[in-house]
Specification:
Largest sheet: 6 strands, antiparallel, barrel
CATH topology of the largest domain: Helix Hairpins
CATH architecture of the largest domain: Orthogonal Bundle
Shape: rod-shaped
Radius of gyration: 56 Å
Order of helices and strands: HEEEEEHHHEEEEEEEEE
Structural class: alpha+beta
Helix content: 40-55%
Number of strands: 14
Strand order of the largest sheet: 1-10-13-12-11-14
Distance between the termini: 84 Å
Length: 407
Amino acid sequence: MAGRSRVIAWGLPIVGLAALMAGSYSVAANRPQRPPESPPRQPVTAPLDDVAADAGSFIGAVGMTEPPGEAMLISAHTGGIVEELFVAVGDRVQAGDPLFRVDSRRARADLAIAQRRVDASRAEVQALRGQIPTRRADVASAEARIESSLAGIESARATLAAAEADLADKLNLVRIAEAVDDPRAISGEERDNRRFAAASAEARVGEAQALVTDAQARLGEAEASLEAARAQLGLLVVADGGDGPDLLAAGARVAEAEASVGQAQTALDLLTMHAPAGATVLQVNLRAGEFAPAKEQTEGLIVLGRPGALHVRAQIDEVDIARFREGARAWASPRGDAGRRLEATLAYIEPMVVPKRQLSGRTSELIDTRVLEVVYEVDAGNDPLYPGQQMDLYIEAEAITASGGQP
């Protein structure tokens, strides 16, 4: 029993140790051998050989290439189906050249209706102006009728005066005949004739009075016609020769219709997007038949870039802003090509410090910081750079001391 306990006490640990050593050897012998791999991109190095590699002697910033004056992101004024696309990537356009047009059928119909309204309102004005000679003729005719009525009144009054004089004469003869008592002097037949003549003269006086009344009535009608004709003419032409109320109202309707045409034409023009400046088409993000939304785009439906040397928009962290100097030398290197170093010339500074937007992808990068955006111009030479390409920018700065301050 004691012998078996000694074997268990010493034998099992020895067997386990041997198994562990055998397993370790097997793992070491069968471990896969991987050849060394090149880094996915060249590591960041000092900007120039004559500049110290110490990061404290320069400011490092991440930048993005862009066309001069930034890329122009073209969106649609009015949403709709793209009716026609006029450009392709790489095309050169001038200011005002059409880029694309959305469905314009309704706008064209509205424009045609507005133009018909203009034609109708202008025809109304012409018709009213054509009535002016007629209205003036009506005034002249009414004035002539007044003159004729006045002459008729004078004639009727003269006739009345003659009839009244004749009546007075006949009545006088009747009185004379009735004053003679001797039947031998004036016969009864003569007396009757004189009475009949007086009655006839009295009738003629009545007729003459009726003629005067009729002539006066015609004069009133002519005066009323003249007032009406003048009122109708006054609606078209005022006393000084200017347009009257009807023509002014018709002219206002013409102006309103013409304004509607301008509004419809503007609505039609807004359906066609034009190039705001001479540029190159960098990107086209729509096709004929697609819907072009009328809202702010994170990327334009068409992206344009002005010609000229590319700019690099770099972000300087707020901790480095105090070390930045406008006249300092600067170099830029494309990502993945650290050995290529391009001279950078300061174009302008955007003085508003903004939240950081461009990220380099480094795990140590701080994203909750604010940056100063500076724009440099770079000359790529024969090796091209492309808009939107990420760049490493180096700006000479005063070295910092170990305590963090400037020497």
